[in-house]
Specification:
By secondary structure, this protein is α+β, with helices and mostly antiparallel strands. It has 12 helices and 17 strands. The longest helix has 40 residues, at 22-61.
Length: 421
């Protein structure tokens, strides 16, 4: 596709404002041209070698002198070794360059370079009328009893909080309620490993794009920055039955991110952490179903925010704020009345076949044993939710004048009480 549509790929890179990758595209096209020329030469040499081999055989059968053809055969073998080694090296470079190219945007994605160009696609919920001045969540009187930031600093550093008592119970209540809701929507819950191999990270599109955000541990493994990495790898190198699709998976895991460069109010309280809990949704589907499922998954996440009694909005992300792997993305932001700002709590993305091609996850019409040609599936992912900022919005939205927090009704059976105090 890149070879046949270089200008479309070039424009796609520009639409994402990743112009620094354009020289890599030029190099890719040139290296691909050279590799194909070498392959042509290899095929010609192989054809000549086969002809000379037949000639040698005939000469030997006739009892004639075969020294000339034998000498040519030796020269051909040496030339072939050199050409094949050069072709393998070029093929490796072509593959490396292909991995540097981002997914192309869907035609509906709005143009724009930064977050200021994102489009508000909908706003839901009425602002709460407070009879007092609402506090930021970290200013609530009992916040330190629920979430101990100082203990986390002693254990691992800033951005690694310790949830204690009612705070820990609230995390557990949110987890159990969300997973139950997702089961009702047809998601199968998985409990994946928290480590990802380089191959798994590469297949998910985290490499070579997100090295700086991931924690690398011994033996080359990475702590997962999101359980999306695990979920999309479940069917790596498998041919699926298209009649069984879509597969819907959910997972609750801790996630680990360096989050370098954050400062100021962005890192106060629960706003930005290096370790945080998140429930992820991933869908594997037929290509013709992915755009409808993208809207459906976004509506699922919006319904969950509504049940939590939060005011929120949907952002349609512009080209420059749509990530490396994504063809189309919505962000959901919850209103933080204590901070008077919107907090991103979920991103829902259609990755199309970008990850599936890396992972070799395909589906065959007529089932695994069918005769149709297997094609890459489409993959979608979305958060339900990144817990820290949902908890921040929840604590601030439902705070009471006495400093307690009245929980939304859906969480009370899982928490065992109606409020934190």
């Amino acid at each position: 596709m890149v070879r046949e549509n270089p200008e479309a790929v070039r424009q796609g890179i520009r639409d994402k404002h990743m112009e620094e990758l354009l020289p890599l595209l030029d190099e890719l096209l040139e290296q691909d041209r050279k590799e194909r020329e070498l392959r042509r030469q290899v095929e010609e040499k192989q054809a000549r070698r086969n002809a000379v081999s037949r000639e040698i055989g005939q000469l030997k059968r006739d009892g004639a002198d075969a020294s000339g053809p034998l000498e040519e055969m030796g020269l051909l073998a040496a030339e072939l070794r050199t050409l094949e080694e050069e072709a393998r090296s070029l093929a490796g470079r072509v593959q490396d360059l292909l991995l540097e190219l981002p997914n192309l945007l869907h035609e509906s994605v709005p143009a724009g370079r930064t977050e200021d160009d994102n489009v508000v696609a909908g706003e839901h919920g009425e602002p709460r009328e407070f009879g007092f001045t609402p506090k930021a969540h970290w200013e609530l009187p009992a916040f330190a009893d629920w979430i101990d930031l100082e203990a986390g600093v002693r254990l691992a550093g800033a951005g690694f909080p310790v949830f204690r008592g009612q705070g820990a119970r609230l995390v557990g209540a949110l987890e159990r309620w969300l997973l139950e809701r997702l089961r009702e929507h047809g998601f199968t819950e998985l409990r994946p490993p928290l480590l990802a191999s380089p191959a798994a990270a590469l297949g998910a599109g985290m490499l070579p794009d997100k090295e700086g955000q991931m924690y690398e541990v011994k033996d080359g493994f990475f702590l997962i920055p999101t359980s999306e990495v695990a979920l999309v790898n479940v069917h790596r190198e498998q041919i699926l039955d298209s009649g069984e699709l879509p597969y819907r998976y959910s997972a609750f895991t801790p996630c680990f991110r360096r989050e370098a460069g954050s400062h100021g109010r962005d890192v106060r309280g629960l706003n930005r952490l290096h370790q945080f809990d998140k429930i992820e949704m991933v869908i594997l589907c037929r290509p013709e179903d992915s755009w409808e499922l993208h809207e459906w998954m976004t509506e699922v996440a919006e319904g969950l925010l509504t049940e939590l009694g939060l005011r929120f909005r949907r952002l349609f992300m512009c080209g420059g704020d749509t990530g490396f792997t994504q063809a189309k993305k919505y962000d959901l932001e919850a209103w933080s009345p204590g901070q008077e700002r919107w907090l991103e709590v979920s991103s829902i993305s259609n990755i199309t076949d970008f990850q599936a091609r890396r992972l070799q996850t395909r589906a065959r019409p007529g089932g695994r044993q069918g005769k149709g040609r297997p094609e890459p599936v489409h993959m979608l992912n979305g958060s339900a939710f990144g817990f820290p900022r949902v908890l921040a919005a929840l604590l601030e939205t439902h705070q009471q004048e006495d400093g307690s927090v009245l929980l939304p009704e859906v969480l009370r059976p899982y928490f065992g009480a109606d409020r934190l105090d």
